[in-house]
């Protein structure tokens, strides 16, 4: 049934599907690891068991999310060799070492201390256990560092040379490759997005339990901490996103043209389009609704600054405007809602009504998945906006794909869709079940105590009878 489809399109769909599933788990676990470190640190500092109860509650959820992130990430690595072997061959000398550094630093650090964090609280000292939790949190951030370094180099490639065999090889300095022009902006923007994603999940869980009992102390603490995060970090994220946009305008102007819906150049100030239907065929934005010259003010800080449009870009070098245009607006719209609820929570806190307004709790509950939607929309904006290139300006997506037939790619895509929805659907369902339960501070154990070898218990001999 895939004979009439294009192998390149199917390979792109498969990678988009698998990376979208993968991205939501690190976006959650990066922020949650740091949240766990904060909770354990507050428990050690204050001695309040409330923080310990919250730590144990979210530790279970972190373990499941982390495991699903690792599994989904391994699958993506295989696709570089199956569907994108030409890209792997050509770019391997550059991106291979960077991805290896991620394993040697971040993954080993996380794997080394994860067991202590999950199972060692009663087996090691408090300081050592807190150190393990910190190492896991730091490891997740180091992992983000290397993966985003790879992606940023693909977006703004520098520091490389083309060898005689056509491969991209490092130039004089690895530092130029690691710290490519877009990397600092992308790193800050993505890590802040991960923290906000976690904050709104925690806030939604706290809101859910507040709606059931507004006096519950654990729910109040979760909701309060999450709203502080929204109030303080969301404005910073919007500023970081603006700086990232300015960097993108400098290095990837056609991506910004697609984000803004600017098919035509505007020599005397460009409008900010709030709504429109991109029409790639006729190279215009149908039903456009915009604010005159505001785009020039945002991007160039001058109402009358000229901005080029896609009419200056060859048709075969333009990204799909419709996807980029709307994914960007979804991301920005959610960011604005995050900042708004943060501001409202500050007002409620000032009025001493943070735990007394059910409508605010319902709003926070609805905002629970907003971080995941925003990070996926941001990823779509970044990656689709880079098309038609895998390595921007140097290697096209069509040149990167493996020489496979459409039925082969389509069959694996179908297998991924079925497997992912069953496996990760079950994992997500279990996480939601854990979130549904209130924080009790008690660890769940087997009904008759822990299971022991051969059914033996302390005080029993080999026959199972009292000694």
Automatic annotation (TrEMBL):
UniProt-recorded name of the protein: Cytochrome ubiquinol oxidase subunit I
Membrane-protein topology: Multi-pass membrane protein
Domain of life according to the entry: Bacteria
What would be an example GO MF term here? Answer: metal ion binding
- Please state where this protein is localized: Cell inner membrane; Cell membrane
Q: Looking at the UniProt record for this protein, which Gene Ontology cellular component terms does it annotate, in alphabetical order?
A: cytochrome complex; plasma membrane
Transmembrane regions listed in the UniProt entry: 15-39, 60-78, 98-121, 128-148, 192-211, 223-240, 323-348, 360-380, 409-432
Family, as annotated: Belongs to the cytochrome ubiquinol oxidase subunit 1 family.
Q: What keywords sit in the KW lines?
A: Cell membrane, Electron transport, Heme, Iron, Membrane, Metal-binding, Transmembrane, Transmembrane helix, Transport
What biological processes does GO assign it? aerobic electron transport chain
Per the annotation, which location comes first and is thus the protein's main one? membrane
Region Disordered: start and end of each range? 446-467
């Amino acid at each position: 049934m895939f004979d009439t489809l294009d192998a390149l399109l199917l390979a792109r769909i498969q990678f988009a599907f698998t990376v979208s599933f993968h991205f939501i788990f690190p976006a959650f676990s990066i922020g949650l690891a740091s949240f766990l470190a904060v909770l354990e640190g507050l428990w050690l500092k204050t001695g309040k068991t409330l923080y310990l109860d919250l730590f144990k509650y979210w530790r279970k959820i972190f373990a499941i999310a982390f495991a699903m992130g690792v599994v989904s990430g391994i699958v993506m690595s295989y696709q570089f060799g199956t569907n994108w072997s030409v890209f792997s061959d050509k770019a391997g000398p550059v991106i291979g070492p960077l991805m290896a550094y991620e394993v040697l630093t971040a993954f080993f650090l996380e794997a080394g201390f994860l067991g202590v964090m999950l199972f060692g609280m009663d087996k090691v000292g408090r300081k050592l256990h807190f150190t393990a939790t910190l190492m896991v949190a730091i490891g997740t951030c180091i992992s983000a560092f290397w993966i985003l370094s790879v992606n940023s180099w693909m977006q703004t490639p520098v520091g490389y040379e083309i060898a005689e065999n056509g491969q991209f090889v490092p130039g004089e300095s690895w530092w130029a490759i690691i710290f490519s022009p877009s990397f600092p902006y992308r790193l800050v923007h993505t890590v802040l997005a991960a923290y906000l994603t976690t904050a709104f999940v925690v806030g939604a869980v706290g809101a859910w339990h507040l709606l059931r009992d507004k006096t519950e102390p654990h729910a109040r603490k979760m909701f309060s901490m999450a709203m502080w995060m929204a109030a303080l970090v969301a404005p910073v994220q919007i500023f970081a996103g603006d700086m990232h946009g300015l960097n993108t305008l400098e290095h990837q102007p056609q991506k910004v043209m697609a984000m803004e819906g600017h098919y035509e150049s505007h020599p005397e100030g460009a409008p900010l389009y709030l709504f429109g239907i991109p029409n790639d065929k006729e190279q215009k934005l149908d039903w456009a609704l915009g604010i005159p010259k505001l785009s020039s003010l945002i991007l160039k800080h001058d109402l009358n600054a000229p901005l080029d449009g896609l009419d200056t870009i060859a048709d075969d070098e333009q990204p799909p405007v419709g996807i980029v245009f709307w994914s960007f607006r979804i991301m920005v719209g959610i960011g604005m809602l995050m900042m708004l609820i943060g501001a409202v929570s500050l007002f409620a806190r000032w009025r001493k009504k943070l735990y007394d307004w059910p409508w605010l709790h319902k709003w926070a509950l609805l905002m629970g998945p907003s971080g995941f939607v925003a990070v996926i929309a941001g990823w779509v904006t970044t990656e689709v906006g880079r098309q038609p290139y895998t390595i921007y300006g140097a290697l096209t997506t069509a040149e990167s794909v493996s020489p496979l037939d459409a039925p082969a790619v389509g069959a694996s895509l179908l297998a991924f869709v079925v497997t992912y929805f069953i496996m990760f659907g079950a994992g997500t369902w279990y996480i939601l079940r854990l979130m549904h339960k209130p924080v009790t501070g008690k660890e769940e154990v087997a009904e008759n105590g822990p299971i022991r070898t051969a059914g033996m218990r302390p005080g029993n001999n080999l026959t199972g009878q009292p000694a």
